[in-house]
Amino acid sequence: MSPANKTVRQSVTLAANIASQVRNLAKTRRLSSNRMLVELIENGIEAEKRKQKEFFELAERFRNTADPEEAKRLGDELGRLVFGS
Predict the structure, then answer these.
(1) Distances (CA, A) of 65 to 19, 53, 75
(2) Rounded CA gap, 6 and 52, in Å?
(3) Number of Cα atoms under 13 Å in the Cβ half of residue 32
């Protein structure tokens, strides 16, 4: 096993309703709860990376715009990304 693929045993405490949802998802997809958790975590990490990339691209557009209306629209969009709707 290469160092990049090394596994680490990790103990995680989940709220009962979250654990139940994980078990139900796992059962639906015919996976173990452990594998389901791994997939959910991997998907969450990818989503965070996409969100961060989107933010930096939007911030770059905001910095480079000369149009005040476009700057306001992009600023509002940045605010929604940072602080939510």
Answers:
(1) 46, 18, 11
(2) 26
(3) 3
60 in a structural domain: yes
User: Can you read off the two tokens belonging to residue 74?
Assistant: 């992009």
The model's pTM is 0.73
For residue 68, CA distances in Å to 12, 16, 43, 79 come to 48, 49, 37, 16
46-57 pLDDT, tens digit each:
999 999 999 999
Residues 50, 6: Cα–Cα separation, whole Å:
25
Question: Is the residue at 1 inside a domain?
Answer: no
Tokens linked to 81:
């990304």
Give pairs for 54-60: CB < 8 Å, separation 24+. Answer: 54/81, 55/81, 55/82
Structural domain count of the chain: 1
In 1-85, which residue ranges form alpha helices assigned H by DSSP? 16-29, 33-64, 68-83
Q: Are 71 and 62 in contact (CB under 8 A)?
A: yes
